[in-house]
Amino acid sequence: xxxxxxxxxxxxxxxxxxxxxxxxxxxxxxxxxxxxxxxxxxxxxxxxxxxxxxxxxxxxxxxxxxxxxxxxxxxxxxxxxxxxxxxxxxxxxxxxxxxxxxxxxxxxxxxx
Length: 112
Description:
Elements: E1 7-9, H1 12-22, E2 30-32, E3 52-57, H2 68-76, E4 82-87, H3 94-97, E5 103-107
Parallel strand pairs: 1-2, 3-4, 4-5
């Protein structure tokens, strides 16, 4: 989280929890998007990172939150150097993402 330009979460309580666990530096670089997205989004580049990076945390489910469409969309991305990290108990879905450059399964991580 120290290297992230910005964190986007789905509830203000998540920011409060992250600040409590990891430090007040997260307060200024965090936003909540609860039912949609902001009307204006900053296009200012805040670091020299060359890659577009997204980190998914949570669990996929075959019948409820299937990652199949996500894998199809990521497979179609061309001419973009990106990193997509998947954190959670999702190893059973690795075959869907085989051969997609930039996708990395990191397994389950402790909140502590």
